[in-house]
Amino acid sequence: MSTQHAGADPLPSEEHHEGAFRPMTELINARSARDIDIARGGPHYGEFIEQVRGLMDRARLACPTDELAIETIDLLKQLNDKLDAAVVDEWSAPTWTRIDLPARGNITLPPFLVDRADRDGVDARLTFRTFHLGGNAAAHGGQIAAGFDDLLGMAAAVHAGAVTRTASLTVDYRSVTPLNTELTLHAWAERQEGRKVFVRATLHDGDRLCAEAHGLFIVLNPGQA
Predict the structure, then answer these.
(1) Interhelix angle 24-32/141-160, nearest 10 degrees
(2) pLDDT tens column, 113-128
(3) What's the whole-model pTM score?
């Protein structure tokens, strides 16, 4: 395991937060205070993630010749061997602390930028790339759900001031969601009943509604996973 950037604050650890979930409210507070820690991953991490996203985009539509496939496989094997030396545990990885980067640097999510996050809701700009293709130049429904899930979770956590876990999520697809277009997503908590946080969200391409979602998130009890 790599010890790169070991001088950075080692928290949060698995024991740092109840349920071993990321402290979303702490990240939002850090953003508001402009106390953004980019130590994990270092100053080149954003470009590293962008190049990985670019590879994913190309792989989604690539139809390589045998020669190119063999050459690329060899290069990817070499690259994976190099990256093995940099793999750390999930609590030390940069991919959820880097709030200076789209989707916090998490390549498993469609990239988004958060413009506002407070108890009244979350406003974000989200782009589905070629990698997120479902068919006919439209974003895959599962990728849309992933975007909703992350940002609804953010809205629930900030509203409740606590760590939450998804209990249910329903997505209604209203029109085609385009690729490589900056979309607007608004998520908010409708109400909270004890540990239950009821949330909603909309996704728009300009004035056109692409999809909307509603869900239920549960505030975790101390020590609950």
Answers:
(1) 80
(2) 999 999 999 999 999 9
(3) 0.86
